[in-house]
Amino acid sequence: MMAVALLIAGLLQTAHAAETMTIVDVRRNITLSEEETPYKDFYIAAGADSGLKKNLVVTAVRKINVRDAAGANAVGEIAVPVGQLKVIAVYDKVAVAREFTLLSRDELPMLEQIGIMTGDKIDLRGSFIDTSKPKPKRKVAEVTGATTTTTTVTTVTTVPAMPMILPAAAPTAPVAAQTGTPAVPGKDLQAVAVPAQLQAQAPVSTGEKLEKVADSGNTSGHE
Fold it and tell me: pLDDT tens across 154-185, in order?
């Protein structure tokens, strides 16, 4: 009878401790190089008498107060599972755990802030022992046992060659028989200047001779 009473008292104490287990702090280490591993520790306000022990995987839940759309009336409170923590050390009144996995929101209520945080409660229901070693976090640039095949696609754009346009040859202007000035076709071409020496050497036209004879006759009559 005494053993049964002690067992019931122990169960009640464990249940009460489980209700009061809360994450009180979250700390990270500062890495000074890429070779150092980053850690994130969750400090739980619970000791060995709470049922926590090393390698125990527990569930972190978050209590959410549900109110109506106006926010005036409180409808109730729900405990939403956030993720799982693995206990790595247990002390007198504090236990240290690290993130084991985050639970998907596909079949669970959504959270305004994803990730385990300060204030979340610890639930021992569904807890189990995991003795596997933590997987080392690989760097992004590190590739182990994998062959990478790189395919390069080259796009060649062909530009059609422009035909070569040669300047048109200047037409040969015929030389005028009487004036000695070359005839240049087209209105846009400038007139070709004839040197004064060529004009002086050009033969005198018949009209000019007649004018000179008439002038000489008039001069003789006046005399």
Answer: 665 665 666 666 665 555 555 444 444 555 45
What's the rounded Cα separation, in Å, for the pair 223 and 219? 6
The contacts of residue 47 (CB under 8 Å, 6+ apart) are: 90, 91, 92, 93, 94, 95
Task: Count the alpha carbons within 13 Å of 91 in the hemisphere toward its beta carbon.
Answer: 8
Q: Residue ranges per domain, the chain?
A: 2-29+38-129, 175-216
The residue behind tokens 């300060």 is: 118
Residue 223 pLDDT: 42
CA distances in angstroms from 186 to 47, 170, 182, listed in the order given: 111, 12, 13
* Radius of gyration in angstroms for the set of CA atoms belonging to the chain, rounded to a whole number: 54
CA distance 59 to 51: 13
> Residue 56's beta-bridge partner residues?
129
Interatomic CA distance for residues 184 and 177, integer angstroms: 14
- Interval 47-84: pLDDT, tens: 989 999 999 999 999 999 999 998 889 999 999 999 99
Pick from 52, 55, 80, 48: nearest CA to 66 = 80
Handedness of CA 126, 131, 137, 143 (dihedral sign): negative
- What is the residue type of 92? D
d(CA 95, CA 217): 146
Q: How many CB atoms lie within 10 A of CB 44?
A: 25
